[in-house]
């Protein structure tokens, strides 16, 4: 049985709890600001003509800078130059962010619109080791709320006893080799990966 209407969904799930409505705001409360300041990792979701994209973003805690209660700045750190998210933003400004704080089971969900800045004065504020990001996302918040802890409780995400050894799963070289039908990747790719990461973080 397929569910194709909001009415069908409501019949299955019932009424939204009062707290789930009251926790949503259009600007950052001091408590929501504290979560962003403590977060070293978030997922950035964007949408464009080709479809959706979700990408991990991370740096030292507070790497997403709070300018005011409705404005954030996210420096675009060095990557692979696919710029999928940035290409989406220039065509559709809608963004969503999910912030995680290690050891904390509540997460923070934020929706808004973004523009890409190449302003040297702004970018200079986010230099690391003398290296300035090429651009930064300036995000205007439209809604923000915390997500309850059930998903992270169920996943036991922060439980070290449940963590997997990296060696149990395909390496980056293995995945690249498989996806490229052997044109790239493999042991040669893996052998220099850690050093490449060190040299290209910023």
Task: Describe the overall structure.
Residues 169-190 are annotated as: Disordered. It comes from Phreatobacter aquaticus. Pfam families: PNPOx_N (PF01243). This protein is of the alpha+beta class and 202 residues long. It has two domains: 19-155, Roll (Pnp Oxidase, Chain A); 164-199, no CATH class. It is built from nine helices and seven strands, in the order H-H-H-E-E-E-E-H-E-E-H-E-H-H-H-H. Strands 2-1-5-6-7-4-3 form a seven-stranded antiparallel beta sheet, covered by helices on one side. A hairpin with a 6-residue loop joins strand 5 (94-100) and strand 6 (107-117). The longest helix has 9 residues, at 30-38. It starts with 5 loop residues before the first helix and ends with a helix. The model has no long low-confidence stretch (mean pLDDT 96).
CATH topology of the largest domain: Pnp Oxidase, Chain A
Described by the principal axes of the CA atoms, the overall outline is globular
Distance between the termini: 49 Å
Determine the CATH superfamily of the largest domain: Electron Transport, Fmn-binding Protein, Chain A
Query: In order across it, which strands form the biggest sheet?
Result: 2-1-5-6-7-4-3
CATH class of the largest domain: Mainly Beta
How many structural domains in the coordinates?
2
Radius of gyration: 20 Å
Please mark out the parts with pLDDT under 50 across 5 or more consecutive residues, or reply none: none
Residue share in β-strands: 25-35%
How many strands appear in the DSSP assignment? 7
The CATH architecture of the largest domain is: Roll
Which structural class do you get from the secondary structure elements?
alpha+beta
Tally of individual helices = 9
One letter per element, helices H and strands E, the order comes to HHHEEEEHEEHEHHHH
Query: On the 0-100 scale, what is the average pLDDT?
Result: 96
Helix percent reads 25-40%
Main beta sheet: 7 strands, antiparallel
Protein name: Pyridoxamine 5'-phosphate oxidase family protein
